[in-house]
Amino acid sequence: MSMLGLNTILNTTAISSNSTIRLGFSVVNKLNSRLNPKYKFCNSSIPSSRRAYISQSNWQKGNHDKNTNNNNNKSNNNNNDNDEGDHNRKSTNKYVAGFISLGYVYFTNHETGSEDRNTNKSNPSMLDLTGVDQLSYNQLLLPTKHSRNTTTSNLDNYVSSRIDILHNLYLKKRRRRNNIDKGQQQLSLEDGSSTGDVFSDTSSFGSLSNIYKLIIAPEAKLLTTIVVTTLCLSAVNLYIPKVTGDLITVISSKLAGVGDTTMSGMIDEILPPAKMLAGLFLGNGLLTLVNVYLLSAYGERISIRTRLELFDNIMNRKMTFFDQKSTTELISRLTSEVNEFKSQAKLIVGQGIKAVSITAGSVYQLFRISNRLTLFLIGSTGVMYLSLWIYGKLLIAAREKSKQINEMMHSIITEAIENSRVIKGFGNTYIEYELLKRAAEENQHQKLVFGFHMGVFRALSNISVGVLMINVLLFGGRLVMNGEISGGNLMSYLMNVQNTERALVSIGELLGQFIKMKGNVGRISELLDEKVDSANWTDQGNSDKNNRAHTVPNKNLTSTGLEMSVGASNGASSAHTGERMEFNDSIRFEDVWFSYATRPEHKVLKGFNLEIKKGMSIALCGKSGSGKTTISQLIQRLYTPDSGTIYIDDVPLQDMDLQTYRNSISIIEQNPVLFTTSVLENLRYSNLDASHDQVVEACRIANCLEFIEGGALSNGFDTVITKDSLSGGQKQRIAIARAILRNPKLLILDEATASLDAQNEKYVVDAIDNLVNSNITVLIIAHKLNTVKNADLIVVLGTAGQIVEMGTHDELMRLRNHYYDMVNTD
Q1: Phi-psi category of 566—alpha, beta or left, where left has phi over 0 and alpha has psi -120 to 50?
Q2: Average pLDDT for residues 735-747, to the nearest whole number?
Q3: Contact between residue 75 and residue 34 where contact means Cβ atoms under 8 Å apart
Q4: Which residue has the higher pLDDT, 82 or 435?
């Protein structure tokens, strides 16, 4: 069969597919009108405008024209004995109609181009089936849930409006991603904002140097071993067709009576290539085992290293970094992003080397066997791949639409679950149901479209490959008959053709994976390469603070291939040694100005000045937004002032070793964080060297020993804390005990009783009083002023951290001013 014949078959297949679908649409539609009028399109023929119209009122009420009803009644009366069969035909026919019309819609859609999805809004009784949002069309396949307490039209309009907004939102996101896929690293959005953010959808591609740093340089020795084993495996796979051809040639010659035809003679000639073939298959299996094992070890090692470097980098950022980043995105970078990167690296390294080497070797074998047959094969393959490439563009477009709607549906589900209280409060669960139903219908529609295109693509692929193989057999058979090649050579040739075809398909898939991996590498490297501010470094001083990116830990591939010694992070030594700062005099704020990075125009503190003497208990109180919590965060060095200085004794806070400083302070917040482990391990989190007696004493001071050992907790200190196993007051007292166990030089209590009931508040206040009466320097931030009455100094803050008055409780009460008003209001 010639190249012209192949091209004719392919073109005829495409034309006949289109014609068959149009004919099938018409036939099934007429069949529908008799078996199941509810699912009947209003026109039995395909209109020139390529639209099918459905009356929404008739659709919802199930009404149809009188002639159709009369015909159906007659049909039903004539088939009373076959009700069950009619029902089955109707049910089956509904889905047949949906599938056939699906094919019609998308063939015609690609011929005419996409139309504006809003063109049919002016006529609510007409539905356009050619655009993206053929919602009512999907009701052919999905059930309808009626709304409650609202009219159908209002509900439909509301849901349609929200769907339109989500469509536009995710369409913009998809366009931005597509622009990046084309190589753009920066993109100006419609609002003019920059998209250079490391976690935006428009992160830049990773460079080859980034790829080298992340996946090649750290594992050079292991990669060399993988390359050698992969090349050996490829060589074995390439040699198998040759030996198979030799074996077939020997067998065919003996069957033809050539040479020694005795049994012993036949065995002597057949046995060597048979043994060789068996050895090759055995070697293939062993090399595959080693190769897969080494690739698994390689993938796990680069994922461990990358995840630890990312985690170390993120955890050493300023708090402004966390204010500006989404927690979900940070977690995604550390989990799914690294997992994708690992899988892509393994696939590209393992399959890439194998595919390229097999392609090169197979093509060499093809030319070695027959130049003429190979040139014929190349010409035919070019025609085949051109046809498949053209249709593949349609497949990609369908996949992109499916991805967009899937993201939109995920967003709807997430938003509904996160805001379930508000939704239930308004009694609008049915609205969210209809919204999700609408998105699910679109998602189903796009999945069916993608499945349809994928089926056509695979069908064309199989037909094309079949036609190609027939051509090779016909042309090759003629060469065998002419004596130019042997039958064994033809078999070897066909096996090499299959190897080449599989390898080329693999290379095509790997190119797509490589593009995706460059995106992942770009996002990971952009974060790792970004310099971390010196305020977040711990024990290395300033000389080596920006050299942590791509630090390669010590590693040794053991007998398991998976174990590795990961070097400790640079910030670990001070924490492990427990070094503590010297605090002999005071903490002093001098002309401190501060604003959050998310609101730089709003100054939270303006020229704030305050001195906290060693051993004092000082309380900050004031209205919300006066800067109380900001002051505590500045003391913790979670943020740095815009201007001004905080001194510890006479040393600027920014010049102190961060880990050493934080070893000396403890904080108790309004909503304490306890980990999912035992009570004892939660307490020891602040001091791993604490003895049992020290733990018990800290619990006694914090008023939590009684409920821990008194039977309230089933296993005492060994009770595992879960989400709802403790009350708020119990959690708060355990947090206080944990802070005490650290033996801090400075203790910060930030709204420690704000969310407690009266009984639990009393226990916590008593614990705070115990701390106030100790020698620990205590900073108390409170709305409830009963926690600050015993403080040595009470500071009342006004707007932007301005101190409006200060003194003891009794002194401020005698002034009968701000504090007095707050106490009486409280």
Answers
A1: beta
A2: 87
A3: yes
A4: 435
At residue 602, what is the residue type? H
Distance CA 303, CA 345 (A): 10
Contact 746, 777 (CB under 8 A): yes
Q: Count of residues for the chain?
A: 826
Partners of 794 in the β-ladder:
619, 807
Residues 451-468 have pLDDT tens digits of 887 787 777 777 777 777
Task: Measure the CA–CA gap between 453 and 446, rounded to whole angstroms.
Answer: 10
764-785 burial by CB neighbour count: b if 16+ within 10 A, else e? bbebbeebbeeebbbbbbbbeb
Name residue 632's amino acid: S
Secondary structure letter of residue 780 according to DSSP:
E
Distance CA 236, CA 274 (A): 15
Please give the Cα distance from 301 to 802 (Å, whole number). 54
Count of Cβ atoms closer than 10 Å to residue 116 Cβ: 9
Question: Would you state the structure tokens that stand for residue 268, as one six-digit string?
Answer: 């002597």
Residue with tokens 């119209």: 53
pLDDT, greater one: 546 or 689: 689
pTM above 0.85, yes or no: no
| Of residues 175 and 94, more confidently modeled | 175
Closest residue by Cα to residue 502 from 196, 308, 826, 237 = 237
More confident residue, 345 or 126: 345
- In angstroms, rounded to a whole number, what is the distance separating the alpha carbons of residues 478 and 471? 11
Cα 186 to chain centroid distance, Å, stands at 22
- Of residues 660 and 399, the one with the higher pLDDT is 660
Structural element, H or E, at residue 488: helix 487-529
